[in-house]
Amino acid sequence: MITAEDVALVRSGRRVLGEISFCVRLGELVALIGPNGAGKSTLLRLLAGLARPTRGRVLVEGEALDRLPPNVRARRIGWLPQGARAAWGITVRELVALGRMPHGDRAQAPVDRAIARLGLASLAGARIDQLSGGEVKRAMIARVLAGEPRVLLLDEPTADLDPAVGFAVMQLLRAVATEEKRAVVVVLHDLPLAGRFADRFVLLAKGQLVAEGDAARILNDATAGRVFGIGFGADDVVLPA
């Protein structure tokens, strides 16, 4: 569904990302993991078409991303940036409805459904700038879902959320991937949560793809443990049953 082919990025003479290739299929939830500064958010921005790679290309449904008109790209790809905030006084419903803009319609059913799925029905009329950080994050995720994109790219979707809410959000994203046949890519720092819900992992370090695979292959001492400098004992990371 979305593919990075030998994607590299050089900025001010410094290599930020180097020749990264992987794909995410419909029905999959893939976690981008790695230490701070590994290039996760930068790679996600390239996948979203918000920056162009110096080399390589990104494909969406077999088409070069940089050749798609902006409105087509926005309909196919839903994007949640890291630390997404809203400082203006619109309501939760109005914010979530912005997800319909690429479609040029005012369809209420997808907006209502997204609001309900994120547990925001009681806050639909509340001003977004008067909510807690966690409530704003849920509204931002609802905005992405309201657009009904085929590809969802979310940078730290569980940041600012209570543990139980973060768990529920990952359950929802997992359902969106598997039941609605969408391709979901998330940047996560919570490795136990990632181990519970991700089908595959793309592990980055210093702008390079270190390894790719399922939890058993990635979340172990020899792979992620070496990159993060931690141990992966039986009680350290929750792996899928």
How many helices does DSSP assign?
9
The proportion of strand residues reads: 15-25%
Which structural class matches the secondary elements? alpha/beta
CATH hierarchy: architecture? 3-Layer(aba) Sandwich
The residue fraction in helices comes out at 25-40%
Pattern of helices and strands: EEEHEEHEHHHEHEHEEHH
Q: Determine the CATH topology.
A: Rossmann fold
Strand arrangement, major sheet: 6-7-8-3-9-10
Shape: globular
CATH homology superfamily: P-loop containing nucleotide triphosphate hydrolases
| Major sheet description | 6 strands, mixed
- Rg, Å, rounded: 18 Å
> What separation lies between the terminal Cα atoms?
27 Å
Low-pLDDT segments: none
Task: Give average pLDDT, whole number.
Answer: 91
Look at the structure and give the CATH class.
Answer: Alpha Beta
Number of strands: 10
Total tally of structural domains: 1
